Amino acid sequence: MATQVTLKILRYDPERDKKAHFETYTVDADPLDRILDVLNTVKWYNDGSLTYRRSCAHGVCGSDAMRINGRNRLACKVLVRDVGGDTGKKIQIEPMLGFKILKDLVVDMDPFFEKYKSIKPYLINYEAAPASSERYQSQEDREIYDETTKCILCGACSGSCPPYWAGPDFVGPAAIVNAHRFIFDSRDQGGAERLNILGQGEGVFRCRTIYNCTDACPRDIPVTKAIEQIRRAMLYNR
Ligand code: SF4
Ligand code: FES
Asked: Within this chain, do residues 76 and 131 fall inside the same structural domain, yes or no?
């Protein structure tokens, strides 16, 4: 049943505003609507200038990560009732911390993707591929990095990480998760290169084991565990 839902959204237009400020919108929504649906209602019927990223609307593309009531979430995966929007509570929506705001809820993802690229997120194997088959891998070997294959590069982990907020050069949890996906792949030969990159000052040892990243991940990837496994690989060669 439709109810009145109030969103308090951080707005910033670099061509108009000296600094970011909150604006409040009250619209009709269903408790089972997703926050993305409510943002669409605001944009389509109240204020067409509201700007945010979205694409798949099904938790797959990773483009609508934002801070919802203080936690990084995908707007397309959070229901109005999950955050008390159907009980009269205001839902506060902000861009992720640790990223430069370009406009409203849209942040500059370029530095994030540069860090992702820095850990060589692709299979490295210096031997010629078998002529008549794939590079085989046992099920047991595949399972070792199964969880880190699920990353959708939404940035929710990095954007909830205090060392990432404080240190613009820290590679961040998302890049580390994607390094893990290849470091522990039995077919890959680039592990030593990646461990060398992540062993530098802006790599895995910047992590303070706060677990915000694990809490934020919409794919339930155990991000902190992956970081720990890389540290162990570095320190104990396992
Ligand atoms: Fe998003 Fe999770 Fe990947 Fe981080 S590890 S970028 S939170 S999917
Ligand atoms: Fe694609 Fe939410 S719009 S993950």
From this structure: no
